[in-house]
Specification:
This protein is an alpha+beta fold. The chain contains six helices and ten strands. The protein folds into two domains: 195 residues, no CATH class; 32 residues, no CATH class.
Length: 255
């Protein structure tokens, strides 16, 4: 959990992130730079309960912590200048790295990358959506299946120095119905590694203990039950699932 000063010290707005669909601010708590998303700035959605996107972001962090893979940066709820909201530690990314990319279809790398789909750019040229084939990104894909992430855009994957990958923007998660929309489909049908299965097992165990108790303050009982069912289903299959249902399998825009 965050240090007490991050929970109680003054949060000062320093800028606004205008590319976000909901009100999102850059802020500081002492010398610590954070992202602040007030509940009051959340836009209503037809398929998610109003006023609870911040809670889902914190719930995603709690699941990430139990998995033990550091997918989600430290995230918590607290008051701020615009009321209660989600606060997350700011991450300085490596501008020379891209975990997800669009390339000319005839210029895909032969190794180290996974092909997701092809389409046409604004000039009518055929392009391919690709992503890294790395353990860090595989773990994020497993995490997305568990939390039922409906919005894993390429821009929601932060390429960190040293090769780590953080995932951010998890307001559209934990829906009771299948909502998985992601750019990380490259391992479709591949078996899970022992490490990935162990992570799923930790979440299953945690739901009967501290994780379940903490999530009860953030999600409905039905949403927690759906999370448990997804964990069990993935554990039994022990492989990456395929898209299903009538909804798009990827978010739009992709980045």
């Amino acid at each position: 959990m965050p240090a007490p000063d991050l929970l109680t010290a003054e949060l000062t707005l320093t800028g606004r992130i205008t590319t976000a669909s909901n009100a999102t601010f850059l802020a500081s708590i002492g010398d610590t730079t954070v992202v602040y998303k007030p509940v009051a700035g959340e836009k209503p959605l037809w398929d998610f309960p109003e006023g609870f996107l911040a809670h889902r972001e914190v719930a995603a962090y709690l699941v990430s912590e139990v998995l033990g893979w550091n997918v989600v940066p430290r995230t918590w709820l607290r008051d701020g200048p615009l009321g209660k909201g989600m606060v997350q530690l700011w991450q300085e990314t490596d501008p020379d790295q891209n975990a997800v990319d669009l390339v000319a279809a005839d210029d895909e790398p032969e190794t180290g990358w996974k092909h997701v789909l092809e389409g046409q750019d604004e000039m009518g040229r055929t392009v391919a959506l690709i992503h890294e084939d790395t353990p860090e990104l595989r773990r994020m894909a497993v995490f997305d299946v568990l939390v039922n992430n409906a919005d894993r855009k390429g821009g929601h994957i932060l390429a960190m120095p040293g090769g780590h990958r953080h995932g951010v923007d998890h307001g559209l998660t934990f829906h009771r119905e299948h909502k998985l929309r992601t750019v990380l489909w490259g391992w479709l049908g591949d078996g899970l590694t022992d490490e990935e299965i162990d992570g799923v097992d930790r979440v299953i165990e945690g739901l009967d203990g501290e994780l379940g108790r903490n999530l009860a303050d953030l999600l409905s009982a039905e949403e927690i039950a759906a999370l448990a069912a997804r964990c069990t289903r993935l554990r039994l299959a022990a492989r990456f699932p395929a898209p299903r249902g009538d909804m798009p399998a990827v978010p739009w825009p992709l980045f």
